[in-house]
Amino acid sequence: MKRPNAEKEYTEEELKLTKTAFEKMSEERRRTLTYNIIRGLPGSMCDAIDSVEQFQKALDNYKGLTEADVQNNLEAFLKAVIPVAKEVGAYMAIHPDDPPIRLFGLPRVVSTAAHVRALLAMERCENNGITLCVGSYGSRPDNDIPAMCEEFSQNINFIHLRNVEKDKDQSKFFGSFTESDHLTGDVDMHHVLSVMLKEQQRRLAATGRKDTRFRLPYRPDHGHKMLDDLKKTTNPGYSGIGRLRGLAELRGLELGIIKTGTAEEPSTKRAKLDA
To answer: Catalytic residues, which ones?
Structure first.
């Protein structure tokens, strides 16, 4: 909140709630919060940062950057990389912003269905694809995950199956959520897997097994700490046993869909998303 003009990015209620929460924190909790915040951006810009002051200097490198700027940067990257990917048979799969909301005043580039449409239009081919991280996209309340799964299925080259439960009152903190179990959050995992299995069948029929793209790799992504992992130091969300539990649940759901033949056809009635 000591960033220049930071108060303009939040509502009065948000400012009041965060001030109250901060004043109730112990010094140890404040240090933990600071540690997490200064390592809360993607890439390597925060690896060597140890203080809020250093973090602010890193942010200053992006001062004045707009959403149009990052979109233009992404387009320049794709136009240079995708032709090479086509030559060597590589399939790109861009991961969404995580979380898909503005952080520290920085614009985002892959947070909504409109963003995905824009980046796919930059280079129209199957090599220019996305990672469908349903947890990242699903943490934003205006993203309709089943609709996005259906609309972009032919350009999905990697699937991250994690689940979240969004806070009920999004008027206080937009995009606030809790990690849930893989099958019990807000994302309809049965629908997602059904549509993707149908897409896998389409690819197999179109190309045969000689084209490995039909395999559509996925992973359980995050998992809760449990059992022996409670005694270990792990990166948040990446405990071994919790992820294996999630994988077992997802494989069971996948097998059930295959055995019962209930893979869903993409809906023709669902409305397209807006920004």
So the answer is: 95, 133, 160, 221-222, 238
Residue 264: predicted pLDDT = 58
DSSP H or E run through 179: strand 177-179
Q: Are 105 and 68 in contact (CB under 8 A)?
A: no
Distance CA 163, CA 242 (A): 13
> Using alpha carbons only, how large is the chain's radius of gyration in Å?
20
Q: Taking Cα atoms as reference points, which of 162, 161, 165, 152 lies closest to residue 124?
A: 152
Task: Give 46's pLDDT tier (boundaries 50, 70, 90).
Answer: low
Q: Which DSSP category does 196 fall into?
A: H
271 — pLDDT class (breaks 50, 70, 90): very low
Q: Quick one: average pLDDT of 106-116?
A: 93
Using CA atoms, how far apart are residues 34 and 1, in angstroms rounded to an integer? 12
Task: Indicate the fold that domain 67-260 takes in CATH.
Answer: TIM Barrel (3.20.20)
Q: Look up the pTM and report it.
A: 0.84
For the chain, the domains span: 6-60, 67-260
Question: In angstroms, rounded to a whole number, what is the distance separating the alpha carbons of residues 125 and 43?
Answer: 27
Helix H or strand E segment including 165: strand 164-166
Tell me how far apart the alpha carbons of residues 168 and 256 are, in angstroms, rounded to a whole number.
31
